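User: Need the bound-state model for flavin-adenine dinucleotide:
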Amino acid sequence: MNDQRTYDVAIIGAGPAGSFLAYQLSVHGLRVALFEKEKLPRKKTCAGGLSAKISDILPFDITPVIQRKIYGATVSHKFQDAFTKYADKLLISTVDRSDFDYYLVQYAKEKGTHLFDDVRIEDLTSDGDAYILKSDKKEIRCKIAVGADGAQSFLARKISLNPISRSHFGLQTEISLDALRPFDFNTIRLDFGNVRDGYFWVFPKKETASVGVIGRLRDAARLRPHLSDWLKLLGVDPDNVVVHGHPIPHRITHSPVSLDRIFLIGDAAGAADYWTGEGIYNALKTAQMLAGHIAAYFAGDQHALARYEKEMDRETLPDLRSSYHLSRLFNYLSLVAFRAIRNNDYPWDVFCRIMRGERSFSEVQKRLRPHILANKIFNRKSRSR
Ligand SMILES: Cc1cc2nc3c(=O)[nH]c(=O)nc-3n(C[C@H](O)[C@H](O)[C@H](O)COP(=O)(O)OP(=O)(O)OC[C@H]3O[C@@H](n4cnc5c(N)ncnc54)[C@H](O)[C@@H]3O)c2cc1C
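Assistant: Bound-state model below.
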């Protein structure tokens, strides 16, 4: 079935990046088509942790889909010596990704986005004036095409863009809280030292928790046995759980994220943070940046579209790069870093500020001069409990 209209913008992928872009462009009065290959609401392999800074970006309240508010972290090293630190303000909210993503889609639809779910885009061609997106069910024309289609983006491959310079792999399962060895479920659990450039986590939600591990993509095959060890430690039989995994992509060096009037955002643009693997915040942020430039273009600014890539480089690259360097250092010195967090407040305060958006990884890297660090570490008393 062909749609005779020419949409201003067609977006492939109704994850946070695609839906939030659709929402903003629809608010600007543009004709927007949003394609999603799955029937919505769909499942997504994710721990569902939203750092508190997300409220700086989203213009609407997400309270209805928040499952738990996190105010601390229980941290261990190689499964030993766990301690808990608390924050006085919100650090992270946890959500179920099918609820959260569908919630954003509803906002986009309310503002006028045309949603086509259960439609996988399989080809993109051009007739000179417009792009034509094709699936086995549908064919539509658009002036601008956006790939918000995740870590294994079809659109990036189609136009031969490869913005991803490093990748992690995340593996996770959902466990009932009742089945876990109890800890304070208003904290997350983290363990460092066992996995190169990675960590284990438990992110409690309302009745379940995401239990998982992140490591380098090249070490993906070793992550399943690692996850089994983590599950055993938490009191869970690893043979009785369903595990899902997915790559987490990072753009830490410059490479194109656009070609003519085709753009990549979110995971498709490698926007996930290297150290934490947090991708939802930058999915929303890249959507927000692109929305501003597309709206300016349709308002008559012919140069607006060229500014997206420059803004991506300015606003996300320094941080992603710093996160990469800090993560490497942290993992190399994992025991020292662990003890520094346990025995002092400064590293913990920095983590809390990053979660709240009060500090960025690039600022941390700039400030991380050994003499300043030593001064801060050794002159503060510990508040760990
Ligand atoms: C195990 C794991 C845990 C994670 N935990 C966290 C976390 O706690 N917090 C966090 O911030 N991030 C986390 N992430 C990362 C996060 O999931 C991603 O960074 C985030 O989903 C990126 O959003 P997106 O909108 O760019 O892409 P996605 O959410 O991947 O959405 C892309 C959408 O495009 C659709 N699609 C793909 N191809 C097509 C096509 N051809 N046609 C139509 N539709 C298509 C897909 O079905 C999908 O719905 C985790 C990742 C993993 C693997």
